[in-house]
Write a structure and sequence with these properties.
- The chain is mainly beta.
- The strands form 5 sheets. It has an 8-stranded antiparallel β-sheet, with no helix packed on it.
């Protein structure tokens, strides 16, 4: 249900129970959360003020202005054992009616977020983003600086809304001797936690999810490569390097 739009900002109710924790206890728990798209790429959660622990909010006296959302009161969030400075914005009289009397928490300032009883990472799952993982017998070959680093007919192709198709390949089809494990780790709300490898001297060109989230289990242990940064041949045809935020 769309509850309001102002400029590029859109607010929509979600039916999920949503909680956020700090210092081992929930500071907000609601079944009436709003998904608010402040940027086009993903939403953030806004909690009705009535479903936020009042003792967890300490007004700083400062305000923060947004052209689309208006002025918000800045609060520090405290749980008694932990504190997150300036981590909550309270919108009491926003020009976007839907978010009036709602609280926005800084995602990374909180310890944990839950949709129902499943922990979520990075940002809320976008209900308009879909992930499909399909087995493919097409011939996929990955080349870096003229060197073949992977050659497979057992790919799993991951299609995610708004991103290029990603080819996840069995490790047995990858030249692991050309890969060097790095310390880079990233998190995805749809797939989980990824580890990375440099490839033939190029940093963080490949990644893998050892234990992906349940909806992405089909790519567990497989390796993918950035289409934007190297050459991928599918059935002998060189694929165009896509334009994306990862280019």
């Amino acid at each position: 249900m769309d509850t309001g739009t102002r400029g590029r900002v859109r607010a929509e109710r979600t039916a999920k129970r949503v909680r956020t924790y700090l210092g081992g206890r929930p500071v907000a728990d609601t079944t009436a959360a709003l998904l608010v798209w402040e940027v086009p790429y993903y939403p953030t959660y806004y909690f009705p003020l009535r479903d936020v622990d009042a003792s967890a909010l300490k007004a700083t006296g400062a305000t923060r202005h947004s052209p689309s959302r208006g002025d918000a009161e800045v609060h520090t969030v405290t749980s008694g054992t932990a504190e997150a400075r300036d981590a909550a914005l309270v919108y009491r009289d926003s020009p976007l009616e839907a978010i009036r009397e709602h609280v926005r928490f800084e995602w990374d300032a909180m310890d944990a977020w839950f949709e129902e009883d499943e922990e979520v990472y990075v940002h809320p799952r976008d209900p308009y983003t879909r992930v499909d993982i399909l087995p493919s017998s097409r011939h996929v070959r990955v080349e870096v600086d003229g060197v073949t680093v992977a050659d497979s007919r057992g790919a799993r192709v991951l299609f995610e809304t708004g991103l290029p198709a990603r080819y996840y390949l069995p490790k047995t089809d990858v030249r692991l001797d050309l890969l060097e494990h790095t310390e880079t780790v990233t998190h995805c709300p749809y797939k989980g936690t990824a580890e990375y490898w440099s490839v033939n001297g190029h940093e963080d060109l490949a990644w893998s999810y050892r234990t992906p989230l349940p909806e992405s289990e089909r790519i567990a242990g497989l390796i993918a490569f950035y289409n934007e940064k190297l050459d991928i041949y599918v059935d002998g045809e060189l694929q165009e390097r896509p334009a994306s935020k990862f280019a």
